[in-house]
Amino acid sequence: MTDVRPTLDGSDVLHTLFRSDQGGHEQVVLCQDRESGLKAVIALHSTALGPALGGTRFYPYASEDDAVQDALNLSRGMSYKNALAGLDHGGGKAVIIGDPAPVAEGGAKSEQLLLAYGRFVASLGGRYVTACDVGTYVQDMDVVARANRWTTGRSPENGGAGDSSVLTAFGVFQGMRASAQAAWGEPTLRGRTVGIAGVGKVGHHLVRHLVEDGASVVVTDVRPESVERVLADHREGVRAVADTDALIRTNLDVYAPCALGGALNEETVPVLTAKIVCGAANNQLAHPGVEKDLADRSILYAPDYVVNAGGVIQVADELHGFDFDRAKAKATRIYDTTLAIFDRAKSEGIPPAEAADRLAEQRIAEARAAAL
Ligand SMILES: NC(=O)c1ccc[n+]([C@@H]2O[C@H](COP(=O)([O-])OP(=O)(O)OC[C@H]3O[C@@H](n4cnc5c(N)ncnc54)[C@H](O)[C@@H]3O)[C@@H](O)[C@H]2O)c1
């Protein structure tokens, strides 16, 4: 008898896909184009609320199995994020396996490869809408968009909205105002000290909102030029410290992780001085359980995927002909959503991260029920 084991070296992946409570994905597409060297995975977690929306990550995964697993995890996260952003979109994500540098610099990215990828997005007929993510940029989306109608994150010259960090920072600021309301009874950061780790694209816009609101801001970044740019833009109200460790030990009211994931872990949570954590970085909780450690220390955590949804709100708007004011109005609602999450957390005696998940699951379940 022939061996019928899956050819993917990934029984774990198949388990996640078909059996695990964490999975339940609707569709996973493995894409290959031999001419350009494209190997990609497009994962659609849910289309209950509408076409699955999520970016394209271009990353040199250690194995194909890792790439599939990442696409599964990231697409599931997008279902939750889109649901709480109030978008009529389900969750999807694509990963392209390879070094995202251009071929000319020894990487895997070429126009031919991006077009081949765009044709796979086209083959889904609108069930999946793509955008930028780690390793892909506005100019890449301009190329991908030549092969289909379902690519966002394009440049303004090509009908897109361009850099999403402006609305992401605005949304984080709304989440922070809601956190201040919940913690101190006033939706303002006036007179508070806010520490920002990472003043890149999002972080530096966030500094501006906070200074305008009357907060004192303390910043840090591994790139000295990023810090210098912020200090040059703001002569008053902003100072810098050497690194993130020094930042979290500074006397802060709010800590805003705006660099990489995993900022909240067993080393950082015990030494945090801030009463609120609210920032743009994805996956701030290093692992499950950290949300409880924060709650035990009475630190109010504004769930990352809720407050950093301004960017996805922006790209979703592109599908209708981008209108900045309309997208900004939608991002303003992050204030109400964050407050609703804190209310639910309080009434159910659970951490806000869990309350956010429950609210998202509720919206998706209601859409599924309505479709029956
Ligand atoms: N750009 C968006 O629209 C958007 C949307 C949602 C979520 N996010 C998330 O927000 C975060 C920031 O995004 P961005 O677009 O501003 O990225 P960015 O790369 O422009 O900025 C990140 C900054 O963090 C700095 N940094 C890296 N490691 C650091 C460390 N250990 N300590 C201090 N600083 C460090 C980098 O030097 C850089 O200046 C990321 O986690 C991203 O996934 C961004």
From TrEMBL:
Keywords assigned: Branched-chain amino acid catabolism, NAD, Oxidoreductase
Boundaries of every Glutamate/phenylalanine/leucine/valine/L-tryptophan dehydrogenase C-terminal domain copy: 162-372
SMART domains linked to this entry: ELFV_dehydrog
Subunit structure: Homodimer.
Listed PROSITE patterns: GLFV_DEHYDROGENASE
Enzyme Commission (EC) number: 1.4.1.23
Pfam families per record: ELFV_dehydrog, ELFV_dehydrog_N
Catalytic activities: L-valine + NAD(+) + H2O = 3-methyl-2-oxobutanoate + NH4(+) + NADH + H(+)
Full protein name: Valine dehydrogenase
Signal peptide feature range: none
Alphabetical list of InterPro entries matching this protein: Aminoacid_DH-like_N_sf, Glu/Leu/Phe/Val/Trp_DH, Glu/Leu/Phe/Val/Trp_DH_C, Glu/Leu/Phe/Val/Trp_DH_dimer, Glu/Leu/Phe/Val_DH_AS, Glu/Phe/Leu/Val/Trp_DH_bac/arc, NAD(P)-bd_dom_sf
